[in-house]
Give the backbone structure.
Amino acid sequence: MTTASALDAEELELIATRAADRGEPAAGAAELVAAVDGGRLADPQDASIVLGMAAELLLEADDPAASLALTERVIDAHGAHGSPSEFARMFRARLLFLLDRADEAMAELTPLRPLLTSDPDAAAEITEALLAGDRDELAHEWLTEAVAEAQQAVPEDEPDDDAGRVATMVLFALLTERHEVRHGLGLPHDSLDETAEELEAAVQEEERAQLEAELSEPVLFFPSAEFDELSRRLPEIARICGPTWDEHRADIERVLAARAEEGLPVGLRLVRGSAAGLEALIDSRAADDPVADDVFDDYVNGLDGQGAGQPWPPARNEACWCGSGAKYKKCCLPRSRVA
Ligand SMILES: [Zn+2]
Ligand SMILES: [Zn+2]
């Protein structure tokens, strides 16, 4: 049952990342374990995931013994819920290696080896475990054999079904892990390494293009009078844009400041929306869900296409972009620093 103090998956993950960012992984782990033991999970099924996050934090805190004890609990929790525990067991093998219990580690890892050719996430975890036990040569051997097997499963043409797509992801994961292990061993590039580097470069290129596309999208802004109008006409949409106009402009300043920090050479700009304009678009759609994201996207892109975009940021002493009449440095600039 959900109680007032119940924590959902997102909040728990936040606890973990914040503790890691603060450089206090052990404290974060203790907090997560306390939430599980105190019955404060909104969904008790999350126990294995939360304990798993705690176990990772304890490894980060350089306490593999405590991490192992928690990992045993994770595996038990998976057993109790009938969920698969393979990845927890790969992590257990890594800890056993770190604790100089190599025989047990190999006994845990060996039966999991077939996952190398069926699960795209297995290559990284299994390699990590083997490297923790200084089994670099063995990792190379397992990965090389798995690559040969995985190549058979990859379709000739662009995959058009799930099985084909998974096979392609599996092969990519194996090739990149193998490439890294070979560099660690000081081996020269072979043809598979060439392929790995080509694929890695293509993925990076794609990620960068995606990021640039995201960062170059204009941000929708409603001037004060339009925001008030929007709150009257379409209150549910006004809530999405920010419960108050002050929060609306603070949100925008934060979003744009964060994009600027990414440092990519893309135009940062705002488009000014109007309540009537947005309402007309929503009416013309007669959509079931008027707050669906694509309505916003289409509205913004339409305005942007008409050249309604406004560059951001203004100079510090110029009038603020929000239209308040105050100088930027005294108006919205400081808002980006207030959470
Ligand atoms: Zn290389
Ligand atoms: Zn302002």
User: Anything to note?
Assistant: Strands lie at 219-221, 269-272, 309-311. The chain has 15 helices and three strands. Residues 179, 183, 189, 193, 197 surround zinc ion (ligand 1) (CB under 6 Å). The radius of gyration is 26 Å.
